[in-house]
């Protein structure tokens, strides 16, 4: 399976991401791009039509989390430890939002990711993001410890 | 805008937030509810299949949990200030403490500082007991 296929498989099982219509645009050894289409369902300010931050947080949590498949040999469950988003400006209504994420440090226990949310150009982000993820190990053991360990 | 102003005022007065929530599409999408106990606001996110991320556990999507917390903080600021304008998010930082399972989730918000231009809000979310939070978060909002 290519990195892009692994990322697509990962995204396709996340129900809420399907509800929001998120799709993998690009995935390779340099990171991951996911698209969040504009929809009136995710508007947070009915006066302006601006998308709620929660939908952008969902895009970026997903994007940072799945970007781990671009760097790991095997599929691993990596729950989010923390995530921070800094908004440069609000998203423009009516246009899709793209999330880009990369892992800038991978250790045996923890993966550090960073990324941006943007609309027209990645060089003009609407938000900067950093997220830290826990490695639970590959395969069923990882899933088991995920269940018992209770991080999400 | 007058409509929103009226609804915020109504929620402030009566403690019934349904009409205000109904006007916010994202609030309807994830299904947030608000309970008021005296002066306290408790935010409630009922179990909803569409909010699931990890299907194996199954677990609430971390982004939905964060969105629920951000929305709670926004509503808390609007209603406590009795303001018709939507606070704009400046930054949002969330720590995930334990698995947010697919069950009802609750949150309370603490407005630590409400200045003229910026508000600082801490949010705590839990599922079983408030002493065992599933996540804590902190947000800054632009108020003017």
TrEMBL record, chain A:
Any GO MF annotation of the entry: 1,4-dihydroxy-2-naphthoyl-CoA thioesterase activity
Domain of life: Bacteria
Keyword Hydrolase assigned: yes
InterPro entries, A to Z: HotDog_dom_sf, PAAI_dom, Thioestr_dom
GO cellular component: cytosol
Chain ranges of the Thioesterase domain: 49-124
Protein name: Uncharacterized domain 1-containing protein
Keywords: Hydrolase
NCBIfam families assigned: unchar_dom_1 (TIGR00369)
Source lineage: Bacteria, Pseudomonadati, Pseudomonadota, Gammaproteobacteria, Pseudomonadales
Cited PANTHER family: 1,4-DIHYDROXY-2-NAPHTHOYL-COA THIOESTERASE 1, BLR7284 PROTEIN
Pfam family, one: 4HBT
Source organism of this protein record: Halopseudomonas formosensis
TrEMBL record, chain B:
Transmembrane stretches, start-end: none
Pfam family, one: 4HBT
Thioesterase domain span: 60-130
InterPro entries, A to Z: HotDog_dom_sf (IPR029069), Thioestr_dom (IPR006683)
GO molecular function: thiolester hydrolase activity
Domain of life: Bacteria
UniProt protein name: Uncharacterized domain 1-containing protein
Organism: Halopseudomonas formosensis
Classification lineage: Bacteria, Pseudomonadati, Pseudomonadota, Gammaproteobacteria, Pseudomonadales
């Amino acid at each position: 399976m290519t990195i892009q296929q692994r990322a697509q498989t990962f995204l396709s099982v996340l129900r809420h991401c399907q509800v929001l219509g998120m799709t993998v645009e690009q995935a390779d050894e340099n990171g991951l791009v996911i698209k969040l289409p504009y929809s009136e369902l995710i508007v947070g300010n009915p006066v302006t039509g601006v998308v709620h931050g929660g939908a952008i947080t969902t895009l970026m949590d997903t994007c940072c989390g799945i970007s781990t498949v671009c760097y790991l040999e095997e599929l691993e469950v990596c729950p989010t430890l923390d995530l921070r988003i800094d908004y440069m400006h609000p998203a423009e209504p009516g246009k899709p939002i793209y999330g880009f994420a990369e892992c800038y440090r991978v250790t045996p226990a923890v993966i550090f990711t960073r990324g941006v949310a943007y609309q027209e150009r990645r060089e003009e982000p609407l938000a900067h993001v950093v997220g830290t993820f826990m490695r639970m190990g590959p395969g069923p053991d990882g899933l088991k410890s995920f269940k018992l360990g209770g991080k999400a | 805008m007058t409509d929103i102003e009226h609804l915020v005022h109504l929620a402030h007065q009566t403690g019934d937030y349904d009409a205000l929530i109904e006007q916010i599409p994202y609030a309807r999408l994830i299904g947030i509810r608000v309970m008021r106990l005296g002066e306290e606001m408790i935010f409630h996110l009922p179990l909803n299949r569409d909010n699931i991320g990890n299907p194996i556990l199954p677990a609430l999507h971390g982004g939905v949990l964060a969105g629920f917390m951000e929305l709670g903080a926004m509503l808390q600021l609007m209603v406590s200030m009795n303001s018709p304008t939507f606070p704009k998010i400046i930054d949002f930082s969330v720590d995930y403490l334990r698995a947010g399972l697919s069950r009802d989730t609750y949150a309370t918000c603490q407005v630590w500082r409400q200045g003229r231009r910026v508000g600082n809000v801490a949010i705590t979310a839990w599922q079983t007991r408030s002493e065992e939070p599933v996540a804590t978060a902190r947000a800054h909002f632009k108020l003017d």
